[in-house]
Every structure is written in C-alpha cells, then in structure tokens.
C-alpha cells in the first residue's frame, strides 16, 4: 500500500520509496525524498519561489525514460499553485509554481529535475537574473570552465555586475548574476556580446556557437538560456545522472583552485555539510535591491 504522509497539513501519497533510482550508488527514491525534505528544502524553495517550473522526469532512474513536461501532470492536487505562462503561439498555458514544502515533496515524488526561467510568474519575459551555462567539449572539463568563469567574473565586474557560481550537476558550470528587472531580449543581447568577446579574447578556450564541430576541447559559453522561453537547472536540484549529483553552489575560491573535475562534483550526501558550512551561497540572488542594471552594450 502506498504510504500517506502529512506535510504542512497536506496529505501526500509517496510511492515506491524502496525503488533504487541511482544504481551506481544504490540511492533509493526514499533517500531522494529525504534529501529534498531534510537537506535542500530551505535553500531550494527560495530559488523556486514565484518561478514557473519545468520538470525533467526520470521515474525509472537516469537510465530509464526521460521526458520534459511544462504542463501540470494529471492528478496534480488542487492546492498546488499554478501560474499563467504565455506560449510562443500567443496562447496562455499554466505551469506549476513550487512555493512550499508540501508542493516540493509532491513534485519530488514524481522524480524530477527542477528547471526554472530567469523571470518570475507575473512578469514573464522580464528577467531578474542573467545566466551563463559553461559547457565543456571533450577533452575539456569543468577545469577549463573555471578558467572561463574567472574571465567572465572580471568582465562582469567591470560592468558593475556580480557573478555567483554553481555546478551544473553534469559536466559544466553555471554563472548567475542578479539584475534589475530587464526585458529578457535585452539580457540575451548583452550575454551574447560577452560570449562573443570571450571567444575573441580566449580563442583557444572558448566558443559561443553550439555547432558541434567547433566544440571539442573548448568551453561553450551558452548565453541562450537567457531567452524568455528557456530554463536552467534550479540550484540544489538533483540531476538525472549516473550518481545523485546536485547542481551545487560553489565558492569563488573553489573555482580558482579547481585542478581536476572531481573537485567540483557534489552528491546529495555532500550537501548537508556544505549548507552547514556556507549557508546558501546563492542567497544574494534573492536579496531585494541586489540586482544591478544591464549595461547598454557588452
């Protein structure tokens, strides 16, 4: 029988708790739910708040079927918040907004990665953060991503912007920058300008175009996730990888000192200690008044 749990006054059916989702580590669904409830909830909810969520579902683990969904799935409880989101065809749809622990646990029970846009519900297409996804092409790794991140940090700082880093939870690194609310198209144009400049100044290390033939041994500075329709893995989400890796905030010292890829791999079991030591390293992204204006040109 599926157990029923009460979370903040909401009754939830949490299913298949003994199911192994990550065979490489033997991590069960119950352990995944415990990670979200006991370790990540406080920090993760701050980054999910007021942002419509896209789910990458992997109900049978990373080796099983994986599929993206933006629409509320069948059976979504009436108490789970949704928000209107414009679509490219000018029609309006609704997406989940995870704003409390009960909604988080309901969503986590579906076995998902959490992905969110750079804007908030109510102001679609008006970004309050900028993102760069630094994606290494083999044989490059996160070590090369760190080199690029340091260049971008300096360049952003010259424009009065402060960058914060996190692992992608996969092979690369994400940089996030708090902004004054700005049209996504303008943010995208600025981010593209910096990506092009990075390639010009670091031609042996950086590409800004996704063409596969250009990418071996280099870091793609992917600016495209600033588009209003795009999303990025939310901080603290687990990823559908061989192990329960986390898109984990990192310090600039860790980025500066990274010499091997394994130094910036963090699993669910690492996060309680990191949160205890550092708190939420990305907390400043959510501080009122922290955002700065986007320069007119890159």
UniProtKB/TrEMBL annotation:
User: Which keywords does this Swiss-Prot/TrEMBL entry list?
Assistant: Ligase
Q: Which residues form the DNA ligase D polymerase domain?
A: 28-281
Q: What is its EC number?
A: 6.5.1.1
The superkingdom of the source organism is Bacteria
The protein's GO terms of the molecular function aspect are: DNA ligase (ATP) activity
Statement: the UniProt record of this protein carries the keyword Ligase: yes
Under the heading InterPro entries, the entry gives: LigD_pol_dom, MtLigD_Pol-like, NHEJ_LigD
Protein name stated in the entry: Non-homologous end-joining DNA ligase
